[in-house]
Amino acid sequence: MTRSFLISLLTFATLLTGLALGEGVILMMAIPLVVFLLISYWRLPRNVKLSASRRLSAERIFSGEDVQVTLTVKNDGDDLEEILIEDMLPDRLEIVSGSNRFLTRLPAGQSVSWSYALRGKRGYFMLHEVRVKLSDVLGMVRMQTSLVTEGQLFIVPPVLRLRRVSIRPRRTRIYSGTVPARQGGPGVEFFDVREYQTGDSPRAINWHLTARHPQSLFSNQYEQERVVDVGIILDGRRRTTEFGAVSIFEHSVMATAALVDAFLSAGNRVGLLFYGKQIHWTLPGYGKLQGEKILHSLSCLEPGESQAFSGLFIPRHVFPAKSQLVLVSSLNTDDFAALADLRSKGYAVLVISPDPVSFEAANIPASGPADQAFRIIRMKQQLLFRRLLGIGIQVVNWDVSQPFEQVARRELERRQIIEKRGP
Amino acid sequence: MKIRTLAILLLMVGTACLAAAFFLDGRVLPAFLSILFFFAWCYALLRHWRWANGLGLLVLWAIIGWGAWLQLSHSLLLAGLFALLAGWDLADFSTRLSQVEADAGHEELIRRHLFWLTATLAIALGCVLLALNLDLTIPLGWMVVIAILTALGLARVISHLMKII
Asked: What number is the average pLDDT over the span A1-5?
């Protein structure tokens, strides 16, 4: 019940009762109420002309960081005796300090400005609406209007620094980088020995071999190191495990951000394919700008369900032939065929698998049947990993309770034996 | 002084006047009921139950009307009425203030609200005192015309206020 409705109701009820009973004193009781109504009517703001602007201390922050929001509302209309300004925020943003609501008086031609701090989870947020509630001097009438402001906020996943991720696809690009190119030339790692040719550095002469063949000179060849194409595939199918606010998908996103940073830092060309409710493709590119593009893409991604993409179907045409693919996915036994297909086409495939079994086990109360079920699933998972290893796919099974940097240092920094078995 | 404290004080004064008016007339039950409602209202106010303000005003207003019909002390009833009206307004205002964090802008807001509330009640009191002391003899025809015009005017003001919401 609004105040004006209540006072109106009381006024008429009092007048009618006074008239019905013929009591002058009861009629007089209506006088204060009528004065209330008339003064509200008199002091009502007729010309409401408000504008709002918003300033963010940063439009892009990492998850867990704070952003300062400064909101300014200007009054170009009549005096506003009581104005409640509320900045409308998406659910996933939380206020760290200050308030998104502000109650004040705003005379004509003046503006009011205040700040508060926000924090939130990974995502892309449009901050466009400011709701304003206006009242007259006595608060009898409440008008509500919305003001449009500009504002967007990217909360990107934290980027873990990985020192090196060892990969070795069959095809490299022409620019020098850090990935061994299976070709002799300038480099660090020993590759081959050939007969000395004009232009070879005297330092490269292999004196041991030359001593055995006095008629010839031999020089060492080193393995060239070049940049490569890396396609990162992030699996966002809904079957990924979720427990309330905790989701294994968030771990996948974090690992993807770390890998993207590591590959781009090494000078490689990196593209991102998100595979979930729909396919989202970030075109390959180099450098920090590409890193930002991918982080922005990662901030917007949400896992989802789609019948068309329920199985793993990776569009090969978006990845250069024989390039390096990194799949970040809690693997399913049905996914083997798709990965085998990629491998058969000459792609080097690395799978980072945030372990859904240990994740679920940590979130489900221990019981006999659950333990049994976990053992069965674990065995099926191990079998899948072995089959993948058999076709030359390296799998990193990541128990998400451990930091990804630690797992990556152990599993990804050194070259795996598997490379020698590749096709 | 905090607005909520001021609201409670005014409600207390209003209820005390009302209870005294009934008590002086030897009616203990309505006096007791008024006091009971006052405590219920205060409790609701402390819990920030906004809906209770409207209900409290309706109930106590009805009790004042009953007192007026019973020809109780006019001065006590009027004092109670004004105190209750002011208390109700400030209780509602304090609820609105409590929805936001305390800020420097509130001082000016509170000052303006108190000024306008005092002005409104002063004008209303002036009108009531004038009505109490003025003895006009108006023919029935004019009375009917004035009553109709008042009703129409009030209805127009109310409809305008309601339309805005």
From this structure: 76
Q: Show which of residues 63-92 on chain B sit within 8 Å of chain A, judged by CB atoms.
A: 64-65, 68-69, 74, 77, 81-82, 85, 89, 92
Q: How remote is the C-alpha of A143 from its chain's centroid? A: 38
Cβ separation of B109 and A34 shorter than 8 Å? no
Kindly report the average pLDDT of chain A as a whole number: 87
- Cβ separation B101–A142 shorter than 8 A: no
Residue B138 confidence (pLDDT) above 80: no
Residue with tokens 């105040």: A3
Q: What is the ipTM of this complex?
A: 0.87
- CA gap A297, A122 in Å, rounded: 11
| Residue A181 tokens, joined | 């190119």
A348-354 and A324-328 as β-strands: parallel, antiparallel, unpaired?
parallel
Beta strands per DSSP E along A6-122: 50-56, 60-62, 67-75, 80-87, 93-97, 101-106, 111-120
**For residues A252-286, b (16+ Cβ closer than 10 Å) or e, as one string?**
bbbbbbbbbbbbbbbbbbbbbbbbbbebbebebee
Tokens describing residue A38: 């008339």
C-alpha to C-alpha distances, A98 to A60, A71, A85, A361, B129, nearest whole angstrom? 20, 12, 14, 40, 48
Distances (CA, A) of A332 to A395, B21, B57, B101: 13, 82, 66, 51
| Packing angle, helices A336-344 and A368-390, rounded to 10 | 10
Q: How far is CA A280 from CA A34, A232, A235, A353, in A?
A: 64, 12, 11, 20
Optimal mutation site among A35, A96, A140, interface B, most CBs of chain B within 10 A = A35
Residues of B in contact with A99 (CB under 8 A): 100-101
Q: How far apart are CA A327 and CA A325, in angstroms?
A: 6
Does B25 reach chain A within 8 Å, measured CB to CB?
no
Chains A and B form CB pairs within 8 A to the count of 141
Place of tokens 């007791």: B32
Asked if B121's CB is within 8 angstroms of A103's CB, the reply is no
Please, where are the H alpha helices in B25-73?
28-46, 51-69
Q: Tell me the backbone φ, ψ of residue A183, rounded to 5 degrees.
A: -135, 140
Q: Residue B161 to residues A50, B48, B106, B164: CA-CA distances in angstroms?
A: 21, 26, 25, 6
Average confidence (pLDDT) over A206-222 = 89
**Average pLDDT estimate for A278-301:** 90
Neighbours of A224 (CB within 10 A): 20
pLDDT in tens, A238-269: 665 667 667 888 899 999 999 999 999 999 99
pLDDT at A258: 94
Calpha distance A26→A191 (Å, rounded): 108
pLDDT score for A423: 42
Taking a contact as any Cβ pair under 8 Å apart, which residues of chain B between 126 and 165 contact chain A? Answer: 127-128, 131-132, 147, 151, 154, 157-158, 160-162, 164-165
